[in-house]
Specification:
Jelly Rolls; 6-stranded mixed β-sheet; mainly beta; flat; about 750 residues; Immunoglobulin-like; 5-stranded antiparallel β-sheet; 6 domains
Length: about 750
């Protein structure tokens, strides 16, 4: 598009002619505009300036469809809402000298690849064609931003870099631009220069935590040392280390998915990864996860370790400094991971520091005190250490905080989660003690004494005092458990009341603090049982929890299950089974002939019916036979395939009766209603007047779940069909010579 602004001009072009104008695009499309002129040659023909290939003093093409991009720097872009000068010596182009400018226009033109849509706007001013030199313009800085920030903030100790676009209308390169970093207590406060911060990159120190910082650049060029207008970035806040909230924001600036590229170490470990995770969390919804694979060492003297650089910090260690974090290991070797830090040349792992339970803070100690117990798997454990009490750490400054895996000789995958990492000089909120690895020891027989076993742990080192106990019993291993009256000791002797039942142990850990802290009750992970009798009179065996599992579709194999118990401890032998069928869920159930195993194949006769499984428990020791037990109802049973069938005569018409010497075809559309592929065939069989099969044809397909297939089979009828019948039905299988499972009703034609 062209906008005519001047015509009937008569401006000769000499070797000294210069051309310049100023442009201020309001939007991205506005960059694709430029000033053009039409010139006349001596022979009267004309041409346009933008097609001469002349570049301005910045090396940018003068054709509007390039958007004034520099050939030498394709990343350059005209700043929006800011005046930029476009200047060039058009007389320096011999092809233009001697020509005469006759018309001037403003043109808008986008490249085909840009494919601009929408409106465009901008401003052009101070268009000049002169034989005098173009006045030197000061350089400009635009598009200023900060590299290294995240979510409008950066952590102390992390490097920031000021970025901007330099431009000079006269093409003069940048030289001596002045950089400053400014700080203020609030985003909108008064900013002052940070002493010594005079480079484009800057690393905020701990003294700036909580303040806001800006980058300021004053552009300068190399030739006339022209100084442009200073430009400042938007402010960002400097954060201190906060391992209790930053996992939720996901804003650690130095998270990496591998070892530290700047000196981090690893050996015999692959697939290392560090990331924010929402799989588990101690508080909030996210935690920090590290994982990898420990491999067989090349040499016995090699280590198996990896340092994960997670974030930078600037934290002074005083006599009161404490470290606390929560860890969630998922398997045995995942315990060999811990928080480590570098502090003025020292490290936590090599400092000799221990946590409040006496476990070494080096990750290869697995958080296990000498002679103590392992921390639990797949649950959160707090680690607390008075790191400021160690002379080789006190007075130093933490610069980097890492998570380190170290387990010499380990082989396998590891995955550990961390959350609520806190380094403070203040008081930590003490947590209640915990109990883990709770279990029951002893024999499940009347008269036997059971013991409750568990591991007590207090992250703050408080000894156990006054923990309380309960024993519970239930009718099934996974059912509800109720307290056993009076059973409040660490041991319990089984009585006749527990025969046939299951028993659990529960502990509520309590420490010896002045105001005792009570932890959460923790039950044994598995129950012991069923309890058998001792010195009881002979008692018949008992069956319970009878049930049926499997698909309710015809052709499916279902399984009857139950729990066997003999109060005298006699082994099961010769238990008997029955399968029963009913027309309704609560109707009368009758035994299915020959269905006397623990499994049963659903047949077409079970369609729309309900089933029950019955077990009669037996043993070889008198009394041998217990009472029969029935499962709950199972059903209704449904067809696994839906079949629509028809018979077609040789002439293509629907066959309504058998006709001698006629070609007869049985067609079936079969819909597989199962969740698995089904091998289905249709069988078309001819029976004579005595009921004997005299001809048969079949067709077979494997039908994907939820889809339908059309199958056909047929034959030529004999010369006499009196008393004959044709039957069509669907069956599960691959051939009529393999075991078949009827899947449909029988369709018959006489």
């Amino acid at each position: 598009m062209a906008f005519k602004i001047f015509e009937n001009l008569n401006i000769p072009i000499t070797a000294a002619t210069n051309f310049s104008y100023w442009i201020n695009p309001s939007d991205a499309n506005g960059k694709y505009a430029s000033v053009d002129f039409t010139y006349r040659r001596s022979d009267g023909t004309t041409g346009t300036f933008i097609n001469t290939g002349i570049k301005d003093m910045n090396g940018s093409s003068t054709h509007p469809n390039t958007g004034h991009i520099k050939t030498s720097d394709p990343s350059y872009s005209l700043p929006l809402n800011q005046w930029t000068q476009v200047a060039m010596n058009i007389g320096g182009n011999a092809s233009l000298v001697g020509k005469t400018i006759i018309k001037m226009t403003i043109k808008f033109d986008t490249t085909a690849s840009y494919n601009a849509q929408g409106s465009f706007s901008g401003y052009i001013d101070d268009i000049r064609i002169t034989n005098q030199a173009v006045a030197a313009a000061a350089p400009t800085a635009s598009n200023i931003s900060l590299i290294g920030s995240s979510n409008g903030a950066v952590f102390a100790g992390s490097q920031l870099t000021g970025s901007y676009t330099y431009a000079d209308a006269n093409g003069e390169p940048e030289f001596g631009s002045v950089f400053e970093w400014l700080s203020a207590p609030t985003a909108g406060g008064t900013y002052t220069t940070v002493s010594g911060a005079t480079y484009a990159s800057f690393t905020p120190t701990a003294s700036l935590i909580g303040k806001y910082i800006k980058f300021k650049v004053t552009p300068k060029n190399v030739y006339d040392l022209g100084t442009g207008t200073p430009v400042e970035s938007a402010p960002i806040q400097i954060k201190g280390f906060d391992g209790t909230t930053s996992f939720e924001a996901g804003d650690f600036p130095a998270i990496v998915n591998t070892v530290d590229g700047n000196g981090g170490r690893k050996m015999s470990v692959t697939n290392e990864k560090a990331e924010i995770s929402s799989t588990v969390a101690k508080s909030g919804t996210q935690s920090f996860a590290v994982s990898g694979t420990a491999n067989i060492r090349s040499l016995p003297t090699d280590g198996t370790y990896v340092d994960f650089l997670t974030f930078n910090a600037s934290i002074p260690i005083t006599a009161d400094t404490k470290l606390s974090y929560w860890i969630y290991p998922t398997n045995e070797i995942s315990r060999y991971i811990g928080i480590d830090f570098s502090a003025s040349g020292s490290s936590l792992r090599d400092s000799g520091a221990v946590d409040k339970t006496g476990a070494g803070m080096h990750p290869n100690k697995a958080h296990k005190p000498t002679g103590g117990k392992d921390i639990p798997l797949n649950e959160w454990t707090q680690i607390v250490s008075d790191i400021g009490s160690y002379p080789n750490l006190r007075g130093k400054t933490i610069e980097t905080i890492k998570i380190k895996f170290d387990n010499p000789g380990a082989v396998g995958n590891f995955l550990t989660y961390f959350d609520d990492i806190e380094i403070t000089d203040g008081a930590l909120q003490e947590q209640a003690p915990t109990a883990h690895t709770v279990a029951v020891t002893g024999d499940a027989s009347v008269g036997a004494t059971l013991g409750g076993d568990y591991v007590y742990r207090d992250a703050f080192g408080k000894p156990e005092k006054g923990s309380s106990y309960k024993w519970l019993r239930g009718n099934t291993v996974n059912g509800a458990f109720t307290e056993i009256p009076g059973a409040t000791g660490k041991t319990y002797t089984l009585t006749a009341a527990e025969v046939g039942k299951y028993v659990k142990f529960e502990v509520t850990p309590i420490n010896n603090a002045a105001t005792s802290s009570v932890g959460s009750p923790k039950q044994s992970s598995t129950a012991i049982g069923p309890v058998i009798g001792s010195n009881l009179p002979p008692t018949a065996p008992i069956a319970s929890e009878a049930g049926i599992s499997g698909s309710k579709l015809v052709g499916s194999l279902v399984t009857g299950s139950y729990t066997y118990l003999d109060p005298n401890g006699d082994l099961e032998s010769g238990s008997s089974y029955r399968w029963l069928r009913s027309d309704s869920e609560n109707g009368i159930y009758t035994a299915i002939a020959n269905a006397t195993e623990t499994t049963y194949m659903l047949t077409n006769e079970d369609t729309d019916k309900y089933l029950k499984f019955e077990v009669t428990p037996r043993t070889d020791v008198a009394p041998e036979t217990g009472a029969p037990v029935l499962s709950n109802s199972f059903g209704p049973v449904a067809q696994s395939v839906q079949v629509t069938a028809s018979f077609v005569a040789g002439n293509g018409s629907v066959a309504t009766q058998l006709m001698p010497n006629q070609l007869l075809t049985g067609n079936a559309v079969i819909v597989n209603q199962n969740t698995l592929a089904a091998d289905v065939l249709i069988i078309v069989a001819l029976y004579d007047s005595s009921g004997s099969m005299v001809n048969v044809s079949f067709s077979q397909k494997s039908i994907a779940p939820g889809t339908s297939e059309a199958l056909s089979a047929g034959f030529k009828l004999p010369s006499s069909t009196a008393g004959y019948r044709v039957k069509l039905f669907a069956a599960g299988g691959t051939s009529i010579y393999s075991p078949l499972i009827p899947l449909s009703n029988v369709f018959e034609l006489r």
